[in-house]
Amino acid sequence: MTIPTLNLHHDDTPGAPRFTLSRDDGRRSRPFPLPDPWAMTVPGEVLDEAGDPMTLRWALGFMHGDYGRMPGPFQLRRRRVEETLRAWGVAVMEAIQQNPQALLFLEHARQAGSWCLRVHANDAGILSWPWEVVQSPDHTGPVGLRARVERAVEHGWDPIEPPPDLPTDRLEILLVTARGREGDVPYRAVSGPLVQAVAGHAVHITQLRPPTFDTLSRTLRDNPGRFHLLHFDGHGSVVEGAAVLFFEDSLHQLNAVPARLLAEQLAEHCIPAVVLNACRSGEPGDTADPWSASATALLRGGVREVVAMSHPLSTDGARRFIPDFYEQLLRHGSMGEAARVGRQAMRRERYRGTGKRRALLEDWYLPQVFRMGSFDFSFAREATPTDPTKRLPRAARRTERLRYRELELLALERATDRASLVMLHGPEGVGKTTLARELCTWRAWTRWDGDIDWVDCAQFTSARSLQDRLGAVLGQDALALRGAVLRQGLRRQRRLVVLDGVEALSDEAVDWLGELVETLAGEGTRLLLTGPTDLPALSGPHVRAIPLKPLRFDVSFELAKDLLGRSLDRRKDEDLIYAIAAMRGVPLLIGALLADVSRVAPQALREALDAVTVEIVQGRNRAALNAVREAVGLG
User: Fold this and answer.
1) 96, 226, 289, 548: least CB-packed within 10 angstroms?
2) For strand 148-153 and strand 116-121, is the pairing parallel, antiparallel, or unpaired?
3) What is the DSSP letter of 430?
4) Who contacts 14 (Cβ-Cβ below 8 Å, separation ≥6)?
């Protein structure tokens, strides 16, 4: 559906910024000046002891970083910044309304209901202005919530035509999730909501594994004409005046890739659209060059539309934006409209952070749309949805939500990409099987390019029965395979085989697995084993052991609050808090006992857990659970 578009053109002649407003029919207003937000200062705020005034541009970077969620005087500074930003938005609208022709165009667009404000400029600084916050003084709401707001380079290059053979029966998204160092943003903090948002739609998400620039180049080269959209979930910045995006290197460290190099890759393969969930991906470098931002560099490479973030965006903010953005993209087909709806979601739920750093934050205007053309995604609305998890064995499908194990899941992802055998070991009840199922389900959702199989080791304890079971995964003709022939067959196939409960295997079976690992040597099939302890008999350069420990004390209480659906009061919930602490971070105990907590007196639960402290410390958590349930009358 065509909607009215108001085109705001920047006059790049020297002097104060001047603009004209035009309509689709070619009518154009007389030039009028607009105030420069980056020349504004925040009242009552200084940068340093010398008393230098704090500019709005500097303040926005401060406000959306970690300091923006700090308590006390930082919140006063945040409010002053927000008031200054709103004052600029009102001043811009008042300046437009003082021009009779511009006012007439604006009122005509508003009467249509849905409309678009498209800013055209050749100056990177003008493009970086926060146009989304432009608003009337009568509090009718900012433009960025009521209309589409898009940015375009005035004298830009023509976008590249999409490949004619792009799929029309599904939307294909290439997902890049680059996390790098430990302690970073949780692995699927943003990509998880993305996958959930498109579930039930005809959308195929392919995750880049590993998330290196070389892998991206190879994936695009091997899949010509496949992807409609690249979604980058990672970090962005401006380094030495140049816009960069951070992929990972072969050692999982962050690797800064200039945006222009990414643009060259996407241009070669004609990718129509990109979403950059990366801080400062819409911010220009230290130059007026309109192509100096990551977003505009991609436009120069031929991408038709880019969604980028103007400043550092919190994980909470991105989690609010992404689901509504993709749901609207599939419903309506327009990235501009999808971004508007995503901003509305951010505005509705403005709390960011947790604990003492939980604060109301106005960050809804950070997602920005840049375009040199358009791409209609509405074809996916009519396509038949598919469920990628149906190709999984039933035992490999997720049966419960994985909570607070994102770092461990990332470690498991990386290990099973590189090692032939990964031993996931830990006490019973810490969630080894749950984590293995989550890995299988996540790989199905994100189109891992191999097959996935699940083996319950309690049913195949001997070496011969295990060989028969693994031979069966190669097909009916391989049921009788033995020895080296079977091992070579597994080496030639890309698959993940989970061996759950390896403590049930005989010594002979474990020895045969060691021979299999030597044959695989990092090629073909990957084996993921779960069990209570590491297996010393399985070692070598292609073996990796990952210990799974109970949850940290603070994390176990976050899980408990999630399950209870409320916070805990230190005085009113003293016995319950003690009981949760006595569970020592074991998810099995926390989940099973808190599910029935309404039927149990907290003091009785506390006393029952005290009685099984030895069992919990020794890792005999199922025995501890049964004893507690019996003691409190839940047996």
Assistant:
1) 289
2) parallel
3) S
4) none
Q: Which residue has the higher pLDDT, 322 or 312?
A: 322
- The residue count of the chain comes to 635
Asked whether the beta carbons of 470 and 509 are under 8 A apart, the reply is no
Sign of the C-alpha dihedral, residues 470, 387, 447, 367? negative
* CB distance 203 to 447 below 8 Å: no
Tens-digit pLDDT profile for residues 589-634: 999 999 989 899 999 999 999 999 999 999 999 999 999 999 999 8
Q: Which residue has the higher pLDDT, 334 or 360?
A: 334
Q: How far is 180 from 211, CA to CA, in rounded Å?
A: 9
Hey, what amino acid is at 562? D
As a whole number of angstroms, the distance between CA 586 and CA 584 comes to: 6
User: How far is residue 56's CA from residue 85's CA, in Å, rounded to a whole number?
Assistant: 7
3-state SS string over 549-602?
A: CCCCHHHHHHHHHHHHCCCCCCCCCHHHHHHHHHCCCCHHHHHHHHHCHHHCCH
Give the chain's radius of gyration (CA, Å).
28
Among 80, 105, 94, 101, smallest CA distance to 134 is for 94
Which residues fall within 8 angstroms of residue 110, CB to CB, at 6 or more apart?
A: none
